[in-house]
Amino acid sequence: MGQQLQDNSLEPKQLLVNESLFAQGNGYLGVRGNFEEGYAEDMASIRGCYVNGFYENVDISYGEKCFGFPETMQKLPNIPDAQTVELYLGHQLERFSLFSGELLGFERSLDFDTGISLRKIHWRSPLGLEIELEIRRMVSFVKRELFVIDYQVKALNFDEPIEIRSSINASIENFTTDDDVRVASGHAKLLWPTDCVAGGFAQVVAKTHSSALEIALSSYHRCSETQSQEFSSAENQAKTVVRFAAGSAVRMTKYAVFTDTRRHPMPAQQGLELLHSFSAFDFEALASEQAQYLSQFWNRSAIAIKGDEQLELGLRFNVFQLLQSLGQDAVSNIAAKGLSGEGYEGHYFWDTEIYVLPVFILTQPELAKNLLRFRYNTLDQARARARELGHTKGALFPWRTINGDECSSFFEAGTAQYHISADIAWAFAQYWKASADFDFMCECGAEVLFETARLWLETGHFNRQGQFCIDSVTGPDEYTAIVNNNFYTNSMAQHNLNWAVKMHAELANKAPDVLGRISSQIGLDAAELKQWQAASDAMLLLFDESLGINPQDDSFLNKKVWDFENTPKSKYPLLLNFHPLVIYRHQVSKQPDVMLAHYLLDGISDEQTMAKSYDYYDQVTTHDSSLSSCIFSIMAARIGRLDVSGKWFAQTARLDLDNTHGNTRDGLHIANLAGTWQCLVYGFAGVRLADQHLKLAPALAPDWQGYSFCLTWRGRQIEIDVNPKQTQVRLLSGDAMDIEIHAKMRRLETSLSVETLGSND
Fold first, then answer.
1. CB–CB of 118/134 below 8 Å?
2. Is 351 annotated as a binding residue?
3. CATH code for 315-337+347-684?
4. pTM of the model
5. Rg of the chain over CA atoms, in angstroms?
6. Which Gene3D superfamilies match (predicted)?
7. 189: annotated binding-site residue?
8. What is the tens place of the pLDDT at every residue in 194-216?
């Protein structure tokens, strides 16, 4: 497809943002887009490298600690730095910097088809030495521990020596600030060096104190003809100095291999073994296998918008960065900032299940299964957390976590969000519908559905009218905490209960031995199953007759509406400018709550209720959360307001590229990246997953020329190409299938052509 991110800015604030935008990763390893040589001395930088699932435990300090509050939390450490490469020119050893001398040319790009970032520089030193410099970087999708820098220098007007000083450094700290609750304010030092060696290769080893996890960084340099090489090491840094004889062009390729004890029992030894293996490949060979990997990825995840390059760039960038951040092993998931920064301290949230998983369920189901397996692997910890909160049965998954233990110290907007367990159950059900992977549901999915379902029987209760109520929880809207009968929570709990009953029947019919094993292990009996169905049937889903909407909770509509007219822009986001109690006492939403339930759960409300609810909550939502605009876009499309949906989509697609929330420097907004894909596929194309078939209702926003994307459905690959008048649905591989398009069942054997709905339909 040939698309790439380009930004040649050297403005200090934009460079901080670009460190996140140009971040590279592979789901295991992430490296921020820092300059190898650094910046000017007075310029800020968040220099960072991260391994997914690698963490340190730190104590949580409470002024008043209550029973069941977490005592420790996990944090993602900034790990040893492999990026540093400094260039010195001529006999005077002039140090190259983009912020000294004369910059004659500068280009910077990140290519989505090759996974390679590139800087091309034409520079003249203060003493007049002129060079062309080309720096290519790659985090390998094929060799997950490998980060590589290819460094090429061409002397244009001098015939003097060139010196490159490359180092790896274990003396690093995390970024902290006291100005934003979304970024850590303490615990800068999370990792301590334990060993450092230098020679033909270099290696630093560091360890966390509390979690006792170890990480090794091993490096090697492949060079063109050199005059000499020097190796030195200190307590926490290993340096390689390469001197090139006078000549017109020199080249050095730096291989950096990261190994940690969560995947590598002997990280130092295994790091050197992998380094020896990987360094046998030159950069071109590594680039070739990287391009092949990404070609296969884009073949299954192809997505495009016709006629709007900026929107398409945002869409493709977002999907590419999702892949770079996605954990692909049993000990990792996808953090709120992925591997692009330290915001939210590397924690995994519900973002994974509600925002990210729908993308991969329908494009890369094997990757989706890895994320679900992580939740299954932490099921015992979720059971333990439920017991800690007074439940005798069931599983309560953590609101924030890295290793499966709860990290949220602010329970009102954390632990109280019980919907996390229903969100995880929803994702397992979505995977089952899209894949029909019965073996996986027997292995993992059924037990998760059962254990999350049984939690609701002890969380909720039947009131005197026989309605099933759930009290003292927080829904997705974190500006409204500890409420009764939150519409989203209740409706997702109902879905959870229904799917547990369905899966029980599925196992009883197809795999009674598996059902017997699980039931025996968790003590499940037929009486409990009947209670699930009874609770689901009696679930209280609020409806206000006078407004014709679903109230967000029992008390939301009775509160005073926030004074939006007299709240200046400088006071947003509200969470950084007002005490939580001030916010809780008002009718104001941080993000969609009722509308998210409308989107995720077909049939929960009728069309008129959804439209009226959209209008109502549109007036009281601040969109302080990056999870917000994509849901508004999807629901606007759902109720036929395609022009409005298109405006929300534009905000979603370029939220990070344009830094509209002002904090992209701390890392990319992963849920929003995934939300962009959902806007197009679930919003405009109207994709829905029925229990046994796929639904589609393609529509087009005003002024759009069209869009296209690929889906994977039960082993089949499908391409949908939407144009102003006609939509083509093509079966690229797999058996013929039934598909519902505009509420009419059709048979897809090779291709179908249907009408596209426009903004006036």
1. yes
2. yes
3. 1.50.10.10
4. 0.96
5. 27
6. 1.50.10.10, Glycoside hydrolase, family 65, N-terminal domain, Maltose phosphorylase, domain 3
7. no
8. 999 998 899 999 999 999 999 99
